[in-house]
Amino acid sequence: MLVRAVVLAETGRAAPYHHSRPLSVVELDLGSPGPGEALVRIVAAGLCHSDLSVINGTRPRPMPMVLGHEAAGVVEEAGPGVTYVRPGDHVVFSFVPVCGACVECQSGRPALCEPGALANAAGTLLSGTRPFSLADQRINQHLGVSGFAERTVASVASLIKVGAEVPLDHAALFGCALLTGMGAVLNTARAEASSSVVVHGLGGVGLSAVMAARLAGCHPIVAVDAIGIKLELARRLGASDVVLAGPDTVAEIRDLTGGGAHYAFEAVGSAAVLRVAYLATRRGGTTVSIGLPPPDSSVDVPALSLVAEERRLLGSYMGSAVPRRDIPRYLALYQAGVLPVAELHSRSVRIDELNSAFDALAAGEVARQLLTFSD
């Protein structure tokens, strides 16, 4: 089967991307689904900083690659032995395929699935295959999804069934932004009602953390970003206070939270911002790192405070989620009108507009852009 897909041939081209054009729309061969796999027609795919990190080279991945890891679509064909999905089912993708059998999966931590992590690093499906090809060259898969394509083949371990009544453009956001941001608050930190929360970085993930903090009954909820236009959106999504990031950020947060936050969430992927988040927590406070920093970066925090003040510094990958448990739960809240997910959708873009769209993402002009397809 021939499909149009967005291919990144090499990393590290200089921005602006509408000039350097690292992404190309290419017609690729897509193989049939194998055992335990399914062919999915993509309806919508979100543009995330994790994609941008591959483009700019701070998140090394094997090249060439079909990008996109936050997506939703409709199953068109189920491979041999597949019973979980059938043609016509609506699905959201998990960007970690959950094998269900490794130590981490059996311990209730499928976000850390060992075979899933190995497959993602290698640019393959869980089976070790690469379904996309161009002539005789195999094209790598992005986190088992490769959602920037008209169709993709994925392991069923990457799929979560959703109701047909859920708009797929909104459903796509639950595969990364909502799953990661909400999970960091509800699963990793387990923030309690009435506890103070600060969220640093107001992209799709950070804004999802704001919504989760409101859902958990936290107060105050302080939203921090270096770009002022995002602060009003954070207020609409549940922030009680906002701070424009600058040299006095720590002092402002400490003032708003009565001496420091109980919980701080860093959703930028910056070691410098993570340090600010840590310093603005109180004694006994918890700092959760959500964003993906460059692999060679490190954070400097006062070591004594970890013991003498019982501080906690935690990492949260994919919101410490159990995707087939959490995505349906979060979707139910969305359907009940509790989660204003539509507010995250900044705009829709076409497949030939992605280079410029990633410029907008890099500039911090948008919360979540969606690549949408129509047959």
How do you describe this structure in short?
The protein has 375 residues and is α/β, with parallel strands linked by helices. The protein has 13 helices and 18 strands.
Tally of structural domains: 2
CATH class of the largest domain: Alpha Beta
Instruction: Bin the strand percentage.
Output: 25-35%
Indicate the radius of gyration in whole angstroms. Answer: 20 Å
Low-confidence stretches: none
Describe the fold and architecture.
The protein has helices at residues 17-20, 49-55, 103-106, 114-122, 168-172, 177-189, 204-215, 229-237, 249-256, 271-279, 303-308, 323-335, 354-362; strands spanning 2-8, 23-30, 37-47, 65-66, 70-78, 90-93, 132-134, 137-141, 151-155, 159-162, 197-200, 221-225, 241-244, 261-266, 281-289, 312-315, 345-349, 368-372. It has 375 residues and is α/β, with parallel strands linked by helices. It has 2 domains: 2-175 and 340-372, Quinone Oxidoreductase, Chain A, domain 1 (Alpha-Beta Complex), CATH 3.90.180.10; 178-317, NAD(P)-binding Rossmann-like Domain (Rossmann fold), CATH 3.40.50.720. The strands form 3 sheets. Strands 3, 5, 6, 9, 10, 17 and 18 form a 7-stranded mixed β-sheet that branches. Strands 13-12-11-14-15-16 form a 6-stranded parallel β-sheet, sandwiched between helices. Strands 1-2-7-8-4 form a 5-stranded mixed barrel. Helix 8 links the parallel strand 12 and strand 13. It is globular and about 60 Å long. It starts with a strand and ends with a strand.
